[in-house]
Input
Amino acid sequence: MTNQEILTDAFCTALGIDAGQVTDELTYNTIPQWDSTAHMLLIAELENRFNVMLDTDDIIDMSSVAKAREILANYDIQF
Amino acid sequence: MTDYQNFQSHYERLLQMPVFGINQQEKWAKLSPIFEWLHQHHRAHCAAYANITSSAPAHFSSLENVPFLAVKLFKLMSLSSTPTQNVFRTLHSSGTTGQTPATITLDKETSARQSKTLVKVLQESLGRQRLPMLIIDSPVTVKPGSSFTARAAGIQGLSFFGRDHTYALDEQMQPNWQVIEAFHDKYHDQPVLLFGFTFMVWQYFVKAFQQSSGKPAFERGILLHSGGWKKLESEKVDNDTFKNTVAELFGIHQVINFYGMAEQVGSIFTECEAGHLHCPLFSDIIVRDPYTMKPCGSNQQGLLQCVSVLPTSYPGHSILTEDLGRLLGEDDCRCGRKGRYFAIDGRLPQTEVRGCSDTFMAGDAV
Output
């Protein structure tokens, strides 16, 4: 799987949504499935899948799929 | 400041500034236009707020001039400054036993500011990294449901600071020994975060382990707790007793209390190494004489008024609480933090503030 595919898959697993819904524009708190509880599941999923440790700033900044990719790039994950 | 975007950009700028590094005078220069805007915003969007504050000045020459609402009002009526379709979440304060819970209306923007601010403030005590987290509460507290309690909101907000979130209590609020032991085995030699509400931590965790033979040591643990001492007063448990007992039982030496309320989630007041509660850049306190409503002098006990720059969806930016406290000083705490610092002495016993003049005092009282 490419990193983009892993990212999409992590969103699907954590939020319980279809891959088709995981677009760059998908934003935190705009769908019922991505609320603050699911957000913590998403963080844990991304950490496991990409083997990174995200800090509190990352959690707050991770407001969209595009932003998630940007944050992961800071941890040398290439897309 | 004229519009919402301008307010939001003022707030974003505050986020970039040191949380405890700005002296009181400079802080007020930054906050006064924000409070003037918030006052006008709530006047324009909440009829009840506009009625109550009709005699307040439009400009606030000092922090003490910001008009306030008695916290009781949030229990008596639904105060909202946001159209129904923008309501994102309704928060219910747990309320002291026998009291009606307050209802707080949140929109997405206010909710986001609360999370961001909470992170900024607590990073000052905990750092940016997230630690394995033992939550001294039952997982049922945060079960999804229509009513979102302040306790659940608190746990959820704080969970941002942890990883591998583990609930230490079962559904009957008894220690879940197996879970605690497994958590201990996995993490006892590294920094961990323990979080719970003061009374729960004491009643269901500390006391349970006082009576048990085995006690899990978390030498590198940080215990963060909040929620007040009222229920512990009868047991004569104060902050020092609490700290000493936790250190003795679990080897935890970093115990941080914070003061906050459902009506102003996010802009919390954290305890420093000297044991004083500090106002972050986003909020402040005024201590008022309960009879005259005039600001009290230093170290004089009175009612706490809390102001916060966060709420735009409900008029809760300036609230007179029912908590008693004392202003200890300004800019000169030995921990080095700037701004005001204070102590909480307890809660006004079963009081009801009566009459319009008691629920609101405009600038003429200061």
User: Anything to note?
Assistant: The two ends of chain B are 25 Å apart (CA to CA).
